[in-house]
Amino acid sequence: MGKFHPVISPKLRSFIETQQMFFTASSSMGGRVNVSPKGIDSLRVLDECTVAYLDLTGSGNETAAHLRTDGRLTLMFCAFEGEPCILRLFGEGEIVALDSERGRELRAHFPPTPGERHFVVQHVSSVLTSCGYAVPLYDFREQRDMLLTWADKQGPEQMQIYRRLKNSVSIDGFPTGLEEPNYSILAMKADDVGAVFEAFKSWNKPHEQYVRYWRENEEGSRVTIVATDEAETVIGYTNIVWTPEYAPFAEAGIPEINDMNVVGDWQKRGIGTALIKECEKMARHAGHKEMGIGFGLTADYGNAQRLYPKLGYIPDGRGAVPTPWGDVLYLTKKL
Predict the structure, then answer these.
(1) Could you tell me the fold of the domain covering 183-334?
(2) Which of 99, 173, 218, 262 is disulfide-compatible with 236, CB 3.0–4.6 A?
């Protein structure tokens, strides 16, 4: 019988840090489940609920594609010598670019390594150990250096070309986000009110709506998340409403992702997914175990109708709910 642990304890951390390899598992709705072995000195335990590993360039990029759509990530460690044990870390994963602010912070934990692709950070929601009695015993000899030698021989420019050719989509055709333009996602500031209004003025959204959003941000009842491009032009936004108007969410203490919009040129380029992932991360950090969202049932909401189930949201079972904006189907996701 397995045993769940609330966090990565010092004893479990020591076990992780002594292993010479680990395994990753991820999936996306409608695609294959991927399992990959990882070696080299590439993983760090950052704290009792967070681990990160330096992902190196290889023939595939499945985990990155899956984390864009599904988000779930499992890491497994096995004792191949000494006392038997299997340790699994369950949680949500995120891809962190090497040259991002967060990437530069993570850089301090890892030595420079040929073929670096990005960091993968796992926010651990549960830890499970099991006996491992049937795992065979192996003697460790050494880490293979073939991947590092190959990447070093190719050089940075050729590696970038290789990633563009081989790592841009998964084996199921899901985009990995590798070659997408840079954008930033941050909480709204007072100065953003006018910029958001201008970006979506043609959508007939009144300026007062965004003034109200900012007022509710200051009051703490709402968090507005804004996406901007490299020129700091607003390209999308959404909100977390901590106590939604939808009564079943409010009564259950489920925050709601509300009023998500992406400008036309940036639609279907991962911005909506990134906004939702940021909301989920903020809700998780605030102690919530579930997130809610909704979409209209007309064709105008077709993109949302396709996207939200791919990200793991399922209908809450109450059917279509009449609202002043038409019927809405509400969905939830475990965080």
Answers:
(1) Aminopeptidase (3.40.630)
(2) 262
pLDDT digits (tens, 9 = 90+) for 1-52: 799 999 999 999 999 999 999 999 999 877 899 999 999 999 999 999 999 9
Q: Taking the CA atoms of the chain, what radius of gyration do you get in angstroms?
A: 22
119-130 mean pLDDT: 97
CB 124 within 8 A of CB 49: yes
- The encoded tokens of residue 102 equal 């967060």
Phi-psi domain of 248 (left: phi exceeds 0; alpha: psi -120 through 50; beta: other): alpha
- The residue extents of the domains of the chain are 3-166, 183-334
pLDDT given for residue 269 in this prediction: 77
Q: Which residues pair with 261 in a beta bridge?
A: 237
* Global confidence as pTM: 0.66
**3-166 and 183-334 share one fold:** no
What CATH architecture applies to the domain 3-166? Roll (2.30)
